[in-house]
User: Which sequence fits this backbone?
């Protein structure tokens, strides 16, 4: 089977040569089963999932887009990690794995298993931790989460439906380009009229908006879903509110001013049918450090997030995507090669990344043990030395923190602020409901 990559996915694949972007999905199972005892079981499951038997093949000179083809062998893709067995050791294993990015020409995924992990949150005894590493070109967080659910025992999890690509000739290219141009003018008019929110402003860079260098650290805070929610407040918004408070305090701890424009670069699912494995965009969301009442801050953050979604839902966005699909592979690849990863902009879309994905019911099982929580770790990039992931399964929500020493040499300080901030946000939201 051969399937050409969608231009969006090809761009993600080509960009990985400049900015590593593998995804790491962590699932913790409450079982003392050794990692070696479940390896064959997981390999058998992987063999039944056609998507996990794929690799990326380039076309000479990028005259056509790369394609997905069957990989020759998958038997060496489940790795037993012989590291220290504490929960902190396990997180260090995740951080170390960032330096060993996949070669998608061989396979688009790899699984790391760590058994006998002590001190894992929400586990009664030793735990088994599975870390699925997957090429971002092969799918966004929702696609990757669907694959993980199938790998870890959910036979009902269906792959995300992706519309078939049709061949695009010059006439269709001209039609799409013209429509995109017309709708871009309409977007400008609608923005001026106030019927569509204006673009998010750029944010001033802060101490974490530097190139990642030195040791990479990951941390996880596992909490109840109810700690983040209230009427009109989603898990994503509740977590963003806590992150805003923690980041505000971290800056103050170091004697830095807190810019009123403090914001997060959030990942938002695109509107319309999914035509690519990566079906999302990024938008700057206000974190509103100027609002001291945390319940009011949460509602303001929610309004900012909804404004970004309303703007992204304008027909101009989908028209632009359709026009981009018609760009020849050689031109798109040339454009990616021109990207300067060392350039430092005056402003940034967000001061940290916020990626939030719900991973379904807590009905997964490996080695006879149920899943207790899941986590994810958005990649660092040239001007982003701090990222946050918010990932839920069942009633457990994990807020993860990934940082580079150049941006945050004391990640435990930030995590202590974040842990306390979640408590304060939860209390504020409960009090607002009781009024």
Assistant:
């Amino acid at each position: 089977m051969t399937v050409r990559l969608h231009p969006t996915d090809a761009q993600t694949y080509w960009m990985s040569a400049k900015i590593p972007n593998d995804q790491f999905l962590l699932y913790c199972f409450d079982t003392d089963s050794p990692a070696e005892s479940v390896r064959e079981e997981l390999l058998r499951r992987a063999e039944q999932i056609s998507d996990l038997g794929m690799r990326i093949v380039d076309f000479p000179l990028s005259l056509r887009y790369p394609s997905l083809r069957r990989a020759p062998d998958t038997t060496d893709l489940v790795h037993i990690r012989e590291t220290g067995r504490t929960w902190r050791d396990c997180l260090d294993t995740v951080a170390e794995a960032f330096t060993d990015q996949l070669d998608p020409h061989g396979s688009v995924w790899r699984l790391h298993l760590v058994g006998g992990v002590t001190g894992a949150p929400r586990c009664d005894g030793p735990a088994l931790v599975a870390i699925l590493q997957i090429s971002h070109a092969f799918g966004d967080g929702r696609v990757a989460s669907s694959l993980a659910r199938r790998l870890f025992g959910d036979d009902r999890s269906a792959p995300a439906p992706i519309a078939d690509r049709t061949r695009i000739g010059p006439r269709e290219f001209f039609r799409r380009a013209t429509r995109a141009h017309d709708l871009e003018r309409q977007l400008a008019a609608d923005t001026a009229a106030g019927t569509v929110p204006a673009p998010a402003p750029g944010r001033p860079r802060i101490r974490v908006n530097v190139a990642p260098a030195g040791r990479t650290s990951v941390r996880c805070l596992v909490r109840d879903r109810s700690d983040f929610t209230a009427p009109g407040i989603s898990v994503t918004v509740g977590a963003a509110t806590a992150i805003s408070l923690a980041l505000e305090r971290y800056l103050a701890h170091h004697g830095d001013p807190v810019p009123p424009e403090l914001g997060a670069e959030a990942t938002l699912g695109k509107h319309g049918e999914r035509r690519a494995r990566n079906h999302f965009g990024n938008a700057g969301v206000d974190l509103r450090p100027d609002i001291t009442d945390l319940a009011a801050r949460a509602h303001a953050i929610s309004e900012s997030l909804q404004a970004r979604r309303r703007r992204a839902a304008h027909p101009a966005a989908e028209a632009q995507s359709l026009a981009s699909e018609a760009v020849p592979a050689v031109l798109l690849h040339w454009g990616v090669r021109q990207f300067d990863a060392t350039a430092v902009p005056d402003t940034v879309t967000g001061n940290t990344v916020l990626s939030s994905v719900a991973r379904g019911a807590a009905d997964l099982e490996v080695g006879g043990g149920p899943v207790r929580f899941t986590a994810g770790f958005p990649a660092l990039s040239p001007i982003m030395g701090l990222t946050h992931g918010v990932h839920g399964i069942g009633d457990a929500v994990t807020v993860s923190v990934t940082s580079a020493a150049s941006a945050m040499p004391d990640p435990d300080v930030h995590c202590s602020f974040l842990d306390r901030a979640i408590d304060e946000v939860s209390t504020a939201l409960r009090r607002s409901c009781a009024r």
In short: The mean pLDDT is 94. The chain is about 35% helix and 25% strand. The first strand starts at residue 2 and ends at 4.
